Amino acid sequence: MRAATVWHLGVKEFRSLARDRMMLVLIGYAFSVAIYIAGTVMPEILHKAPIAIVDEDRSPLSARIVDAFYPPMFMPPELISAAAMDRRMDLGLDTFALDIPPDFQRDLLAGRGPALQLNVDATRISQAFAGSGYIQIMITDEVMKYARGQGAQSAVGEVDLELRNRFNPELDKSWFGAVMEVVNNITMLSIVLTGAALIREREHGTVEHLLVMPVTPAEIMASKVWSMGVVVLCATALSLRYVVQGWLAVPVEGSLVLFLVGAGLHLYATTSMGIFLATVARSMPQFGLLLLLVLLPLEILSGGLTPRESMPFVVRNLMLAAPTTHFVMLAQAVLYRGAGLAIVWPQLLGLFVIGSVLFGFALARFRRTLAAMV
Predict the structure, then answer these.
(1) Residue ranges of the alpha helices (H) in 205-246?
(2) Residues 6 or more apart from 228 whose CB is under 8 A from it?
(3) Which residues span the domain enclosing 65?
(4) Based on the domain organization, do 266 and 196 belong to the same domain?
(5) b/e map of 318-329 (b: 16 or more CB within 10 Å)?
(6) What's the pTM value of the predicted model, to 2 decimals?
(7) Any idea of the CA torsion for 92, 93, 97, 101, to the nearest 10 degrees?
(8) DSSP letter at 311?
(9) What does the pLDDT profile of the chain (374 residues) look like in tens digits?
(10) Running DSSP on this structure, what letter comes out for residue 252?
(11) Is residue 160 included in any domain, yes or no?
(12) What is the DSSP string of 58-71?
């Protein structure tokens, strides 16, 4: 394999990509607007949920509970009567309706264990699921603080759990969404760019021109892998710096250089996968359908959306053969927890081995495809 030939063929890929405006728009969107959307509009985030409160106690404790609900998670609570609660829920005006019964404070201090009633509009499933847990925690916290102040700790229990949230003290889910979207878009675009580059040449007849030139299949494939990998790697670096850290203000704990090294090894695997898929598909529509069958399992089962420990044993171990699993582990360790090379070297090694295997399979398939065209 001649380095000069691979370099010039890669430059040709840059020029071809520069003329493809829709692909440039896709790259720009995927590493800017898509990252912002994923970081700010996660469905499980509770944001400005409407809540109404029926305060039948009118005590200092009930006032503390009312004051505990404020933006951005909740709208300022509406103080309503018990008769209006059901009607407002029927009209869809409130997602949550909290009823504080009479003598709630007195019964609590007397140790009688009073109960609150929370009505939830479960048709708003994302807010209903997350909001119920938030409301329970907030009320419990206010009740315990008030009981301590009144010297009635025994009324609410003797055990107090002190939580220490590491790596994300405020439990801000935008931190997770933005970084994982970067990881997913690296996988998607690297496969799309290399596969589309090969199919575009086949549809335009450029492959036949390459076959009569003194170049080998390995040189053609290597040029596509390194050139498209460089494009995605540069877009990743800019996205992390200006969108994730700048626009969304998400702190990055570890070394960006180490992460980009891991991203480069991941691109070695996924760009080879893109070449392989392009040799299987006959056209761009077929390539798009095939891409869905490959991308969905890679992204959903890699640990980026659901912890790997929650998956079945067979699936968890089977996905170790996928490059996305190792890349997600590396990205979370480096960007979230500030891990160094001594911790993530197994993931780097795994990405290199998987990338080499995929490159070999793709090259063998690419050679057979070119031989059939002669």
Answers:
(1) 206-211, 217-238
(2) 13, 17, 190, 193, 194, 197, 267, 271, 274
(3) 51-155
(4) yes
(5) ebeebbbbbbbb
(6) 0.76
(7) -120
(8) S
(9) 688 888 888 888 888 888 888 889 999 999 999 998 888 775 556 778 899 999 999 999 999 999 999 887 888 999 999 999 888 888 888 889 999 999 998 888 887 878 899 998 877 766 777 788 888 888 888 888 888 777 665 555 544 445 666 677 766 777 788 888 999 999 999 999 998 888 887 777 676 666 667 778 888 888 889 999 999 999 999 999 999 988 888 888 889 999 999 999 999 999 999 999 988 888 888 888 998 899 988 888 888 877 787 788 898 889 999 999 999 999 988 988 888 899 999 999 999 999 999 999 999 988 888 777 66
(10) -
(11) no
(12) -SHHHHHHHHT--T
**Is residue 163 in a domain?**
no
My answer on whether 98 and 247 are in the same domain is no
Residue where a domain stops, chosen among 155, 180, 207: 155
What is the chain's alpha carbon radius of gyration, rounded to the nearest angstrom?
28
- Write the CB contacts of 113 (distance below 8 Å, at least 6 apart in sequence): 107
212 and 143 in a single domain? The answer is no
The β-bridge relationship of strands 51-55 and 96-100 is parallel
Number of structural domains the chain divides into: 2
- Are residue 144 and residue 182 in the same domain, yes or no? no
Q: Are residues 194 and 262 in the same domain?
A: yes
Order the strands of the 51-55 sheet from edge to edge.
78-79, 51-55, 96-100, 117-120
Judgement on whether residues 359 and 221 belong to the same structural domain of the protein: yes
